[in-house]
Amino acid sequence: ALPIWPFQESVLRKWTAPGARSSLASSLEALRRFRVLVSTSELQRRPGSTGGQGGQAPGALGKPAQAPQAQSQPAQIVLNRRFQSRLAAQLLGTDGSETNDAQEVGSARLGTPSAEALHRHSVSCWDEFLQQLLSAELGSHAEVPREIAQVTSSLGLKEGQQLTSVGFRFALDDRQQQLWSLIVAFLRSGGTCTVCLKCLKIALSLGDLKVGERLKLSEQRLGQLETRFVKLLVDLGVLYSDFGKSHVLADSDHSAFWLAPAGLALFRKDASAMLSRSITGAAACRAVSLLPAHLYDDACGRKPETSGMQTSEEAHGIIVESNFKVYGYTSSPLHALLLGYFCKIIVQLPNLVVGQLAADSALQAMKRGIRAENMLRYLESAAHPHALRRLEEGLPLVPSNVRGQLEVWEASRSRTASRRAVLFEWQPGESEATFQFAKQRAQDSGALLWYRDGSEAEALPPVLVVRAECAPQIRALLGLTESPAPQRLSLH
């Protein structure tokens, strides 16, 4: 069997019978000599080459020169792309007179990943992204790809290794909003408008594809920014690459890309909700049963769902009860971490997390910058299929009393406000007319915060409190030269 995907030669040798190792060595030598097998390191050294597809490289009559392999990157080999295309044409019963487009379709159908593999890719890629984003909370130190680090910095999700208030809100958002936020951040930090429009065109073209359908990028050579944008889509699980994430930049012009469920989530809420319930790969294969079969391309082998698959999938999601209990049916530690941001975790089992919404945990989350709407959106986007049945009965996913209490807790933090102010106090015997004139001018300009009229009975002088930024105008009106020091007042 010849490797269609990148494959370690050392692993291939281990699977060889002891008596056939010399035969394997001579066979591999012949396949390399005729450019049937090429090394991925050669593709990385020559990004404009196809590994023997566009002409012979120097030394093609003999064994091609091998670049020194890094110890951390074992040597990998892959089947020549042109040979794959020809082999696909023969297996599909086409001859050499067929057009290049037909050969390309045959190659795509030969290597089209299954619906389960596409779903696992979307789930695992997002799992890696969350682990990189929440590395400080998880106590891990994952290497962040360049494109991911760029959009994370552009959105202001992290400050150093810690999440910002924007980062906390982002982590609890629904998948569709998260993906578009990352894409828009990349486009805003890109180059010229023309190049950004090309990237945007690629993103919008995904809306016309089905899951498992190949993305056509062979019309013209991709530029540097477009190649990085495609790499970002692969890292986020929106696209699936035949060379894997690590080789997208090395051979982007000749890699094949298929739409994954995360690409469908950019345009469909049901796909977004399905992925929100599947942060990690638990029951990832079964989760595809939640999407209608017509959303999958025929080449990816989508099969009609069975009742058993649907029952298994129903064990995943979040249910919120009217007694403020939150039940997260998941095996994902990331789900438990996100719930712990605003819930008090009571019980954590391998497939179940039980939390309690309480004032102290909710207020602590609000101090981090998490709003009530972020909590509600997370609970609704990852709702359990049983909870979704409430919508059919005209009931909300989150009980009304829970929603109302979260809003009350948030409003309780807004009862007081603090701002910079300047206080003007009139001494006994000073003109009352100047106070009334200054008060009227402060009211007209919107600078007035508080005032007290003079009281002869209590011998209290008039007092005027205005916004700090408007104090120079009041001083000029009163003919004052010295600037009173601004004070911070709490207004109830």
What structural class results from the helix and strand content? alpha+beta
Helical content band = 40-55%
Q: Which stretches are poorly predicted, pLDDT < 50 over at least 5 residues?
A: 47-71, 95-110, 249-253, 280-289, 306-314, 488-492
- Strands of the largest sheet, in order across it? 9-10-12-11
Summarize the main sheet: 4 strands, antiparallel
Spatial extent as radius of gyration: 31 Å
Beta-strand segment tally: 16
Q: Return the average pLDDT rounded to an integer.
A: 76
Number of helices: 22
In whole angstroms, the N-to-C terminal distance is: 77 Å
- DSSP strand (E) fraction? 5-15%
The coarse overall form would be elongated
Question: How would you describe what is shown here?
Answer:
The protein has 492 residues and is α+β, with helices and mostly antiparallel strands. It is 44% helix and 13% strand. It has helices at residues 9-14, 21-33, 40-45, 81-91, 100-111, 115-133, 135-138, 146-155, 165-171, 175-188, 193-205, 224-235, 261-265, 269-276, 307-313, 333-340, 359-367, 372-381, 385-392, 400-412, 432-445, 471-478, and strands at residues 7-8, 37-39, 76-79, 158-159, 162-163, 214-215, 239-241, 257-259, 317-320, 325-329, 344-349, 352-356, 417-425, 448-452, 463-467, 487-491. It has a four-stranded antiparallel sheet. Helix 4 packs across helix 5 (100-111) and helix 8 crosses helix 10 (175-188). The N and C termini lie far apart (77 Å). Residues 47-71, 95-110, 249-253, 280-289, 306-314 and 488-492 have low confidence and may be disordered.
